[in-house]
Amino acid sequence: MLKLENINKKFGDFRLAGISIDIQEGEYFVLLGRSGSGKTQLLELIAGLNEPDSGLIWVDNENVTKKKIQDRNIGLVFQDYAVFPNMTVFGNIAYSLHCRKTEKKEINERVNRIAEELNIHHLLNRLTDNLAGGELQRVALARTLITYPRVLLLDEPLASIDASLKDDIKRILRRLNKKGLTIVHITHDYREAVSLATRVGVIHNGHLIQVGTPAEVFCKPVNKFVARYSGIRNFFRVKFACEEGVWKAQCDGTLAFVMKEDNYPVEGLMIIRGDAIKIHCVEPSNPPANCFKGVIREIFPSEYGMEVTVEAGEKFFIDISADNFKQLQISELSEVWITFPPEAGIALQGNF
């Protein structure tokens, strides 16, 4: 549906290098990256605002690499909305149809239809200079969707919206996607990717590092950068060895973790998600392979509930729910046991 083949583009000292993505019709693809990673530049290449130095861009098996933005049947919503402040909401939404000399009756029908769908019908006669961020985002979406694009490109669509309004915009985007609209959404917030994407691509320094479902990318990151991006804080420099048929990861200190059976390098980096580790107030009667005694050093509220830091030969950052925290009745300096299964340990392929 939308295909990028080995896209390369130099912007001053920065360069997009060898980017290839194949996005299927009806997918919600989130391109995730920090500021300066190249995600906006890539979106502009897809839209037709810039042309790659080399590589090809395909839409519905048609090579659109050198086509202008108006000839690609691609809709683009900018981060700053780019609405016309001197026009009403109706005028903004209808603008592209007027440019195409669409009949007045059809313009009215299409504007009213899309305004109803996005719940902004009551704003049609208002100017845009006093609208809230969520309302402006809906106007920008409506102005783009009224042309029936094959692909919708979103540049940080939730970045300037109050937290209380983000869920409303997410519901709209999910509904549009469920109706079959292919969406490419760029963001720096991995939580948006988890809540919206059918597939995720992670971009860093102009290179596409990993592509997969949210579960594949965030539960099995290919390197330390992706792991950190997804909120993982437990990193251990280890040496891998198989002893009597059991794979172990030996830390620099005294701890050794039992790993699931696999082919591991001699040494590398192992990670554990914070929510994969359990805390026990007493030593488990039938302890799993990985069971360590430790002391709680810090407790902080987090988006998951509570983050508990345990010193157990190595430092562990553990995410637990608020309800679980209340049941455990633990505090700083409490002695606890931590456990996790062998499959919780993930060996990374890279280290940057």
Note the run of SSEs as H and E. Answer: EEEHEEEHHHEHEHEEHHEEEEEEEEHEE
Q: Total number of β-strand segments?
A: 20
CATH C-level category of the largest domain? Alpha Beta
Topology-level CATH name of the largest domain? Rossmann fold
Shape: elongated
CATH superfamily of the largest domain: P-loop containing nucleotide triphosphate hydrolases
What would you say this structure looks like, in words?
The chain is α+β, with helices and mostly antiparallel strands. It has 2 domains: 2-229, P-loop containing nucleotide triphosphate hydrolases (Rossmann fold, 3-Layer(aba) Sandwich), CATH 3.40.50; 236-347, Beta Barrel (OB fold (Dihydrolipoamide Acetyltransferase, E2P)). Helices cover 25% and strands 35% of the residues. Helix 2 packs parallel to helix 4 (133-145). The longest helix has 16 residues, at 163-178. The chain is elongated, with a radius of gyration of 25 Å.
